[in-house]
Design goal:
The protein is of the alpha/beta class and 279 residues long. The chain is built from five helices and eleven strands, in the order αβαβαβαβββαβββββ.
């Protein structure tokens, strides 16, 4: 039953089971065979050698005491091959015939222009061309309404492979700045670039507007500026009109003041005032 009703079966195809047996079953064959037949399966039984005729007829759904059972064939191993044609003819006569209905429309366009998509076709209103007919087992073939409970069929479609853009990777770490202060530059590079490359008309990294490397500004703070002393003023008068005395002089205002953490004159040990002996 797994082969008939499980994955892979065709729900829109007639179901036929041909059983070849050469002995007697130790189980009750009536109930399981009825279950299979109730699901629309026609069972043809071929009894060979020591097969029990009454049991074979029960499996086929016939009266075990009746001589007339078109679904049962008796054969021996030597004639079994020759019986195959007769079994096929019996099967064709025995199976109920489904109604002939108007055909499905052509498959519609694929839902996607590339990759996996879905195609549909439909029967708007099932129209019976020839009605269903019963088989020898008394089962009626399926009507158009039964054959087309859903008026739309679907299937996967694949027109072409989708374009695949190149892999461009991620940027690595920034390089060291070219300057410690005052504005320098640094660079970073992608770990991969066009690897793997574009396929099926996909875009390269350049076409995606992605550069392999980029440059940025760094250390934009101004560099420290040390103070620059101004020139010395003139010496003062000597402190003594005669003999030895001292005179002094001072620097004018700084030409450049310390900025951005630069050193002052004091930090540079540059004097702003000095004296010397005089007479």
């Amino acid at each position: 039953t797994q082969l008939i009703f499980g994955p892979g079966n065709r729900p829109d195809a007639p179901k036929l089971l041909i059983l070849v047996t050469d002995g007697q079953s130790f189980d009750n064959v009536q109930k399981p065979s009825e279950t299979i037949r109730d699901k629309g399966v026609t069972i043809i039984v071929v009894g060979v050698a020591s097969a029990v005729e009454a049991e074979c007829k029960i499996i086929a759904g016939c009266d075990p005491t009746s001589r007339d059972c078109p679904l049962y064939k008796s054969a021996n191993w030597g004639s079994l091959v020759g019986e195959v044609k007769g079994i096929i003819k019996t099967a064709c006569k025995t199976l109920p015939k489904d109604a002939v209905c108007n055909e499905w429309s052509d498959w519609g366009p694929c839902s996607k222009t590339c990759g996996k998509g879905i195609q549909k076709k439909s029967v708007k209103e099932p129209v019976t061309i020839s009605p269903a007919e019963p088989g020898d087992n008394g089962k009626m073939g399926r009507t158009c309404e039964e054959l087309y409970p859903k008026t739309v069929k679907k299937r996967e479609c694949h027109l072409a492979d989708c374009p695949l853009d190149a892999t461009c990777g991620e940027f690595g770490e920034w390089s060291e700045c070219t300057k410690q202060c005052g504005g320098g530059t640094q660079e970073r590079v992608r770990d991969v670039y066009n690897d793997p490359p574009a396929e099926n008309g996909g875009k390269t990294c350049e076409q995606q507007g992605l550069l392999k490397s980029e440059t940025g500004e760094c250390n934009k703070d101004p560099c420290p500026i040390d103070a620059v002393p101004g020139p010395w003023d003139e010496w003062s008068e000597c402190s003594e009109p005669c003999g030895w005395g001292t005179r002094t002089r001072k620097r004018s205002k700084e030409l450049v003041s310390a900025q951005y953490g630069g050193l002052t004159l004091e930090q540079q040990n540059i004097a702003t005032e000095e004296s010397e002996a005089c007479k």
